[in-house]
Amino acid sequence: xxxxxxxxxxxxxxxxxxxxxxxxxxxxxxxxxxxxxxxxxxxxxxxxxxxxxxxxxxxxxxxxxxxxxxxxxxxxxxxxxxxxxxxxxxxxxxxxxxxxxxxxxxxxxxxxxxxxxxxxxxxxxxxxxxxxxxxxxxxxxxxxxxx
Length: 147
Ligand code: CA2
Known about the structure:
Oligomer: single chain
Shape: globular
Bound molecules: ligand CA2
């Protein structure tokens, strides 16, 4: 059966394309979601995307994923990556594998971005490849066998 993939975007990622292009690139979040949708369709996967600036809304969406048939998650939790035990707990509580994505190479940046509350429970982590990192994560997820 084809995967049903949920891509989650965390806080401030709605600003993509409008500010800090040197770090985050020129594409808007809509542009990224369109590229993901095109790739998912090519793989025959169902795709849902969700962005929120709210930690609680992200936790609620992760909990919903356990009920709505989602089989794989790709998540860029933004700054919550480095702060949120709640998002970690939500991901740990559901039995859905996930890939952590960052547009920028967080290891080339401030030291507070070097720690992630998600990485040790993720299947894998992609950082620094811009939108190509999201596409690589989606490609990877789409080609994993389902348990
Ligand atoms: O590199 C990434 O994808 C990050 O997850 C982006 C987060 C940052 O806190 C993480 O350390 C790394 C920040 C997203 C902010 O996005 C903006 C986009 C355009 C303009 C301003 C912020």
